[in-house]
Amino acid sequence: MRPETAVVKVHSQYNVHTEFYACPAARKTIILVNGSLATTASFAQTIKYLQPQFNVVLYDQPYAGQSKPHNSHKQPISKEDEAEILLELIEHFHVDYLLSFSWGGVASLLALAQCPARIEKAVISSFSPLLNAPMLDYLEKGLGYLHAVDRENMGQLVNSTIGKHLPSLFKRYNHRHISNLDEHEYRQMHAHVHQVLKLDDHCHMTCLAGIEIPLLFVNGEHDEYTSPADARLFAQHVNDCQFSTISNAGHFLDMEHKGAWLQSQQALLGFLQASPNGHQQRRLRLAETTAIAV
């Protein structure tokens, strides 16, 4: 099914390309948050198991994909700005669930820390609170390639590190995509990586205790960059969280092979479609009451 597309004005200054996949039988809507240098196309595999169950919202950041022609790119935008964009899209599309991938987890957690009343559950995939040695090595090498706008080496770096478990077809797509990015996209990612490397708390752990909804963290068994063990450190900071490890998978999870796709489907749908507990039911009633009052 082809999505309904629209350019939505958000945060008073950005124009965001959105795609809405409607499911006539769905009662819930989920929004998907891209990783760095990615576009809505990166969720092509995920859509296949979400859209039969939910309405699905995809979007490109103002500097990326089909949002690019609608925005000026004078300076990089911050992760705080990305969080505000996400919050406005949640309201615009009446979103109930959130799924983020990789570095999309930063903006997602920042947004969730503001306790948007509509969001009931969220899935944070391929992300961890720790910049471990493999991730630091990847980021430091990438910083040089991004600064030099070295498209060839940047493409090779992604495919030989976080993308090393991808099938060859997806590696070719990755390389072609990264090789054709505009200079402002390299500047955007360079600014983000530079900031991350200077921060002691790259995902703002201090604000996570305020998140009241259930979170599911999903990581690949063989992902050494955002490992399942590292992701479990979130349990020290998040009140209601679960963890799922996709066996025989790396960073890109459902893109890597059919088995990982099936496991991802089972983990996400099992979590999102589970009945809410007593605390969640009270929160949902409060959110509904607030919406009616407004």
UniProtKB/TrEMBL annotation:
InterPro entries (alphabetical): AB_hydrolase_1, AB_hydrolase_fold, Carboxylesterase_BioH
Top-level division of the source organism's lineage: Bacteria
Membrane-spanning segments: none
Occurrences of domain AB hydrolase-1 (ranges): 29-257
GO MF entries: hydrolase activity
Coiled coil, from the record: none
Keywords, ordered alphabetically: Hydrolase
Pfam families: Abhydrolase_1
Keyword Hydrolase attributed: yes
Family matches, as Gene3D superfamilies: alpha/beta hydrolase
Name by which UniProt lists this protein: Alpha/beta hydrolase
Higher taxonomy: Bacteria, Pseudomonadati, Pseudomonadota, Gammaproteobacteria, Pseudomonadales
